[in-house]
């Protein structure tokens, strides 16, 4: 499916647009390709865009002083990624967004997003609803960390996003869950025993 059609289907799951409105909106998205391991946003960067994933998988993460990685998000096809704190508050990036696999994305600048939201009510509605869903997902993840042990977090992740297990290296899934790679192996082994 062409990039434009993927974007159209994504938007139409949430809002209604005329062909003219969609053509105008899609003209503001810039297609970009990245290679596996390529960094899209690095700490200290100025962040003025967000990325809609067409193909591939991205990850957003922070690294502490001991170089331990904390994964905030995986972004698979149909998902969006950026350093949203930096984007919204016009700060320098504090997280990294890079490519787990080769990836094709559509880039939308903040200026273009704001312009489109001001001009097309349905587009503003799309971003409001998307932001609400993102907040709910973050809330659920936080509650999962507070209420579940490693097994519970793993089972919840695999139930919600089963495609992650084959798309994302296991050490990254472990970092997302806040467990070691060995613990993840034990959780997966026990899962397949039953």
Q: What does it look like?
A:
The chain is of the alpha+beta class. It has a single domain (3-147), classed as Jelly Rolls (Sandwich), CATH 2.60.120.10. The protein has nine helices and eight strands. The protein has helices at residues 3-12, 19-26, 84-89, 110-119, 121-147, 150-160, 164-167, 170-177, 181-193, and strands at residues 30-34, 39-41, 49-55, 58-63, 69-75, 80-81, 96-99, 103-109. It has a four-stranded antiparallel beta sheet with strand order 1-8-3-6. Strands 2-7-4-5 form a four-stranded antiparallel beta sheet. Helix 4 packs across helix 5 (121-147) and helix 8 packs across helix 9 (181-193). The mean pLDDT is 91.
Task: Please supply descriptive tags for the structure shown above.
Jelly Rolls, alpha+beta, 9 helices, 21% strand, 8 strands, 4-stranded antiparallel sheet, 50% helix, 194 residues
What percent of the residues sit in helical stretches (DSSP H or I)? Answer: 40-55%
Strand proportion, as a percent range, falls in: 15-25%
CATH class: Mainly Beta
Rg (C-alpha, Å): 18 Å
Please give the alpha-carbon distance between the first and last residues: 39 Å
CATH superfamily: Jelly Rolls
Per DSSP E runs of 2 or more residues, the count of β-strands stands at 8
User: What is the fold-level CATH name, i.e. the topology?
Assistant: Jelly Rolls
The biggest sheet amounts to: 4 strands, antiparallel
Mean pLDDT: 91
Shape: globular
Order of helices and strands: HHEEEEEEHEEHHHHHH
Spatial strand arrangement across the major sheet: 1-8-3-6
Question: Are there runs of 5+ residues with pLDDT below 50, and where?
Answer: none
Q: What CATH architecture label applies?
A: Sandwich
If helices are DSSP runs of H or I spanning 4 or more residues, what is the number of helices? 9
Structural class from helices and strands?
alpha+beta
Return the domain count.
1
